[in-house]
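F.,

This is the one I mentioned.
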């Protein structure tokens, strides 16, 4: 029997892949980064393979950069090869 979390992940994957790439990348950010990071950041836009994420300050940028490989893998699992780069910027 398939676990509930695996079923939910497959459902999320199908829904996200049915959306335009820019929308799906922005919508997937909280799933990829987790609720703690999602509560303090915001996916602001997606253009030409690059997701821009707004963060509170430079310290957050430094921390999140260390997680880039993990985030990119998460996007690849959910969306396929849509997100090629993540750019963290300070919130204005």
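My design for it:
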């Amino acid at each position: 029997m398939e676990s509930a979390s695996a079923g939910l992940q497959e459902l999320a994957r199908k829904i996200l892949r049915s959306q335009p790439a820019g929308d799906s990348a922005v919508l997937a950010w909280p799933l990829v980064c987790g609720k703690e990071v999602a509560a303090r950041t915001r996916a602001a836009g997606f253009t030409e393979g690059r997701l821009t994420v707004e963060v509170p300050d430079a310290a957050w940028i430094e921390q999140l950069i260390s997680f880039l490989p993990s985030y990119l893998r998460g996007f690849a699992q959910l969306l396929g090869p849509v997100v090629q780069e993540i750019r963290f910027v300070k919130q204005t």
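Residues 32 and 66 are 14 Å apart (CA to CA).

Talk soon.
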